[in-house]
Amino acid sequence: MVKSLQNRTQLNNGVKMPWFGIGVFKVEEGPDLIQAVKAAIKHGYRNIDTAAIYGNEEGVGQAIREAIQETGISREALFVTSKVWNDDLGYEATLAAYETSLQKLGLDYLDLYLIHWPVEGKFKDAWRALETLYKEEKVKAIGVSNFQIHHLEDLMKDAEIKPVLNQVEYHPRLTQKELQAFCVKNGIQLGAWSPLMQGQLLDNPELKELAGKYNKSVAQIILRWDLQNGVVTIPKSIKEHRIIENAAVFDFELAKEDMERIDGLNQNKRVGPDPDHFDF
């Protein structure tokens, strides 16, 4: 059982990744971003997730440097993820994109680098670049995001190195059971983006009822459900009180029947793009 913010899951290459972190999707560069990342680190978060397309790697890097200076925490204690965007998928282009991300973040290495979307005809070349970065020890681990089962099968046909993680849209309306079973079978950790369905689930009557039962917020119920399902989770917030609240999920456990009730909310409904039909 995941007992604290610092608890980690061991990825298939032996690297340990915190189960819980902060995401910064759609958080613009500026003081709010820097304060949010610093607040997260101050309150015990060790997992920070960004991406080239978010346009905020510089702010994230600045926040990390300031937090290290102010708290005395080491860079090695943190787990930093970024992702290569679709325009940069290709062997040479992906290698260059990694260097650009590092430069913007002001870091010597990333803990995890992901292919952001499975662009047909492009993601295999990008994966070769990630394998090169990994072999050259420029990154601690490599993985993918938004890959369906067939994308993973296609990738692994030619890959030398298996992805350590697949980060996908994951919440009670999109439980991704088949994909998760495939990932578990293949030793690929599942990660969740948009775990709160961009706030759309916070008024759900069944989840509100469970929140009352456990004396927790709806968000806390959902995030606890993620963790008990063995999914690495990175809720996004820029408000310090919410960052603290999101992480207060280690002092209770959902009963099996309540886990099943939440699973029962699945409608295979997405708030983000469909990985089989996107045009960017």
UniProtKB/TrEMBL annotation:
Q: Where is the active site?
A: 54 (proton donor)
Task: One Pfam family, please name it.
Answer: Aldo_ket_red
The answer to whether UniProt assigns keyword Zinc to this entry is no
> SUPFAM superfamilies per the record?
NAD(P)-linked oxidoreductase
Q: Which GO terms describe its molecular function?
A: oxidoreductase activity
Show where the NADP-dependent oxidoreductase domain sits. Answer: 32-266
Task: Give the top-rank taxon of the lineage listed in the UniProt record for this protein.
Answer: Bacteria
Report whether Oxidoreductase shows up as a keyword of the record: yes
What CDD domains does this protein map onto?
AKR_AKR5G1-3
User: InterPro entries of this UniProt entry?
Assistant: AKR, AKR5G, Aldo/ket_reductase_CS, NAD(P)_OxRdtase_dom_sf, NADP_OxRdtase_dom
Keyword entries, A-Z: Oxidoreductase
Q: Which of this chain's residues are annotated to bind substrate?
A: 116
What residues does the record give for site: Lowers pKa of active site Tyr?
Answer: 83
Family, as annotated: Belongs to the aldo/keto reductase family.
Q: What is this protein called?
A: Glyoxal reductase
